[in-house]
Design a protein that fits this description.
InterPro entries: aa-tRNA-synth_I_CS (IPR001412), aa-tRNA-synth_Ic (IPR002305), Rossmann-like_a/b/a_fold (IPR014729), Trp-tRNA-ligase (IPR002306), Trp-tRNA_synthetase (IPR050203)
Radius of gyration: 21 Å
Pfam family, one: tRNA-synt_1b
Number of helices: 12
Helix content: 40-55%
Number of strands: 7
Strand order of the largest sheet: 4-3-5
CATH superfamily of one domain: HUPs
EC number: 6.1.1.2
Order of helices and strands: EEEEHHEHHHHEHEHHHHH
Family: Belongs to the class-I aminoacyl-tRNA synthetase family.
Bound molecules: tryptophanyl-5'AMP
Enzyme class: ligase
Shape: globular
Largest sheet: 3 strands, antiparallel
Structural class: mainly alpha
Strand content: 5-15%
CATH class of one domain: Alpha Beta
Length: 336
């Protein structure tokens, strides 16, 4: 079982999506011919705006088990279709940790110690981070490479981890012959949704300031309250100037993304409005976007058997893809 020994017990939650081919097709994507898209999210809470638009503090196992099902419900409600994508629980596919060990032997300690997330998280934990936390990005590399993924949709905070994945794929190929595609990150225009309370920081599930993060299951009242309290500046006009007006620009970017409009159009439509009123307009747009997702989550959560079945089927399909790749890797390195 891949238990992610980060500050909280984190099992990683992954879904993979094979485009232009069914999961039964050849698992080795040809250069530029086939895209295989892979991504992941930790089931440590309800996804927030950042996760949506753009992922062991002695966690009780019962809570973790429940969070896994809640995250499944949330991902399905957000539109992940298990007929098209393979939605699965990483810890059900043991090949992830097997490949991770092989990759761990190919990376030098300082490479991991210099990663921003390790530095930031371990600083918060008074430099008492576990080895699991340190090697977590290698497990993430195994998640991606195990499916010979070509594209990985992530937020900006994962770019450095993606560089490690690319380096590991290249080093492996150099040593054992061309085997892994070098996967590319897919960054959307919302690659970094900022905290509503501090536009210099990213919106994060673990932010201690509850007003900083909008969860997709928040009630309309909570959403209004969070946007009302969002940090802006002393200029009342609505403009998009991310470098000098981070707060209001974050609101404009969120508004444009949830309304499916270009930023310029959103700014044009808010001409003459002051930021106080504009915050309520953005809150309304977010409420409208999340309403159907929220009700779908509630519906799905009532059917635990269905959620468990989706995961069971997904994990079996993922295993079918992972097993032969892992066997090939073992042959290449001499384990078999
Ligand atoms: N404020 C934000 N703005 C924009 N995007 C954001 C914001 N906050 C989070 N994200 C993105 O959401 C995804 C899931 O976040 P996690 O922290 O669970 O994400 C994580 O902790 C990963 N280690 C999970 C993982 C494990 N294996 C993988 C393989 C491929 C891709 C991802 C993974 C991520 O894409 C993250 O970049």
């Amino acid at each position: 079982m891949a238990l992610r020994s980060m500050r909280k017990a984190r099992e990683c939650w992954n879904f993979i999506r094979a485009l232009h081919q069914g999961p039964d097709a050849a698992p080795v994507p040809q250069k530029d011919a086939v895209k295989r898209i892979f991504s992941g999210i930790q089931p440590t809470g309800i996804p927030h705006l950042g996760n949506y638009l753009g992922a062991i503090e002695s966690w009780d196992p019962t809570i973790l088990r429940q969070s896994i099902l809640d995250m499944t419900a949330a991902l399905l409600a957000c539109g992940i279709n298990p007929e098209k994508s393979i939605l699965f629980q990483q810890s059900q596919v043991s090949e992830h940790t097997q490949l991770s060990w092989i990759l761990t032997c190919m990376v030098r300690l300082p490479r991991l110690q210099h990663l921003h997330q390790w530095k930031a998280k371990t600083a918060k934990e008074k430099h008492n981070g576990t080895v699991g936390l340190l090697t977590y990005p290698v497990l993430q590399a195994a998640d991606i490479l195990l499916y010979k993924s070509t594209h990985v949709p992530v937020g900006e905070d994962q770019v450095q981890h993606m560089e490690l994945v690319q380096d590991l794929a290249q080093s492996f190929n150099k040593k054992y012959g061309e085997f892994f595609p070098v996967p590319k990150s897919i960054l959307t225009s919302m690659k970094k949704v900022k905290s509503l309370r501090d536009p210099s920081a990213k919106m994060s599930k673990s932010d201690p300031d509850k007003l900083a993060t909008v969860r997709i299951t928040d009630s309309p009242e909570e959403i209004v309250q969070k946007f009302r309290k969002a940090m802006t500046d002393f200029t009342s006009e609505v403009t998009y100037e991310p470098a000098s007006r981070g707060g209001v620009s974050n609101l404009v970017a969120i508004h444009a993304a949830v309304a499916g409009l270009p930023v310029e159009e959103v700014v044009r439509r808010s001409a003459g409005m002051d930021t106080a009123r504009y915050k309520l307009v953005v809150a309304d747009a977010v409420i409208e976007k999340f309403a159907p997702i929220k009700s779908e989550i509630e519906k799905l959560k009532m059917n635990k058997d269905h959620l468990e079945k989706v995961l069971q089927v997904g994990s079996a399909r993922a295993k079918e893809l992972a097993y032969p790749v892992c066997q090939e890797v073992k042959k290449l390195v001499g384990f078999l």
